[in-house]
């Protein structure tokens, strides 16, 4: 199991996740159409060419989902009870087809669960960076994790 139990985390823990992902046209097309998002900025190359970006911009919710996905293996895989929420999701720079994304995570808060003695709450700050080291997505993820079995 790759994820850590609640009591194995310390505020300030940092992880530079090894898995990176180059975003493809297919990623963007499938995610955008599967989520029924008709925004031409994500689907129409001619339309996108006339915008300030000059090309298709990858769907931001794909970028957000990839942010969480790239972090799971090192954080919550096998130890998660539930993700409780996502806060302060921002996308300071656009993502384009062909960008390679990576994620860094920091633990910002820990607390025992009031309702579950076998679990605790961890808040992760995820940063997603492109190949130019520009932050393209950031968020806080609050997760309930199992306590390490005795």
UniProtKB/TrEMBL annotation:
It holds the Pfam family MaoC_dehydratas. Residues 11-114 form the MaoC-like domain. CDD domains: FkbR2. Gene3D superfamilies: Hotdog Thioesterase. Coiled coil: none annotated. InterPro entries: HotDog_dom_sf, MaoC-like_dom, MCH/BMMD. This is Acyl dehydratase. It comes from Rhizobium fabae.
């Amino acid at each position: 199991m790759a994820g850590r139990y609640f009591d194995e985390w310390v505020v300030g823990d940092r992880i530079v996740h090894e898995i990176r992902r180059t975003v493809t046209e297919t990623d963007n097309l499938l995610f955008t159409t599967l989520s029924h998002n008709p925004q031409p900025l994500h689907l129409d190359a001619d339309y996108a060419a006339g915008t300030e970006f000059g090309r298709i911009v990858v769907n931001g919710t794909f970028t957000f989902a990839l942010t969480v996905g790239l972090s799971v293996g090192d954080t919550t895989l096998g130890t998660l009870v539930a993700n409780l929420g996502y806060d302060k999701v921002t996308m300071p720079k656009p993502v384009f087809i062909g960008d390679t994304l990576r994620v860094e995570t920091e633990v910002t808060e820990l607390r025992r669960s009031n309702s579950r003695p076998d679990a605790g709450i961890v808040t992760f700050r995820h940063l997603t960076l492109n190949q130019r080291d520009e932050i393209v997505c950031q968020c806080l993820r609050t997760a309930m994790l199992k306590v390490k079995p005795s």
